[in-house]
């Protein structure tokens, strides 16, 4: 993609990501002896429309003021330990912060989108909680961040649609 023999000091490229997102790729050669340094910056952020997930996924929305909050790290660690169980339950996690980069999986979400989601769900900027949204698009649970994810799994597993899924999947 980038020819290190070019005599230019920097070049700009656009790259298509695996999910269709565009990235700005900057190749620069500050010194000939160092070769090429690549910097990849996302060009767009992911727009979240909860209706896109109706009948496909359950959603767990993690609302917090700071991405760096120790309780947020604890929740993330808990979710990572149970990653297979998230997949098994078709559960996507949205991390939504007042300060810091919000995400749906690896896709960044804009601060404006976070504000819209908070307003839609009636969640104040200083509230920190987990919100479970069922496949039917309705809110099933609002819980403190300290809630163990296994409690949420038990609630999901008690839902009629999930029981049907477990029977179908064996």
Structural write-up:
With 170 residues, the chain is α+β, with helices and mostly antiparallel strands. The chain has 2 domains: 10-42, no CATH class; 50-169, 3-Layer(aba) Sandwich (Glutaredoxin). Helices cover 28% and strands 32% of the residues. The protein is built from 5 helices and 9 strands. Strands 7-6-5-4-8-9 form a 6-stranded mixed β-sheet. The chain has a 3-stranded antiparallel β-sheet with strand order 1-2-3, with no helix packed on it. A hairpin with a 5-residue loop joins strand 1 (10-16) and strand 2. The longest helix has 12 residues, at 70-81. The termini are far apart. The relative contact order is 0.14.
Shape: globular
Q: What is the CATH H-level superfamily of the largest domain? A: Glutaredoxin
Largest sheet: 6 strands, mixed
Number of domains: 2
Structure summary, number of beta strands: 9
According to CATH, what is the topology of the largest domain? Glutaredoxin
């Amino acid at each position: 993609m980038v020819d290190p023999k070019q005599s230019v000091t920097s070049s700009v490229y656009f790259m298509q990501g695996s999910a269709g997102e565009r990235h700005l790729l900057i190749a620069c050669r500050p010194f000939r002896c160092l070769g090429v340094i690549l910097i990849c910056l996302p060009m767009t952020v992911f727009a979240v429309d909860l209706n896109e997930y109706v009948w496909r996924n359950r959603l767990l929305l993690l609302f917090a003021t700071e991405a760096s909050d120790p309780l947020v790290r604890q929740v993330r660690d808990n979710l990572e330990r149970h990653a297979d169980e998230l997949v098994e339950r078709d559960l996507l996690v949205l991390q939504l912060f007042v300060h810091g980069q919000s995400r749906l999986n690896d896709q960044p979400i804009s601060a404006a989108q976070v504000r819209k989601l908070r307003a839609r769900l009636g969640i104040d900027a200083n509230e920190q909680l987990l919100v479970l949204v069922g496949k039917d698009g309705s809110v099933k649970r609002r819980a403190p961040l300290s809630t163990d994810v296994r409690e949420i799994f038990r609630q999901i597993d008690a839902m009629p649609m999930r029981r049907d899924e477990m029977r179908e999947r064996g």
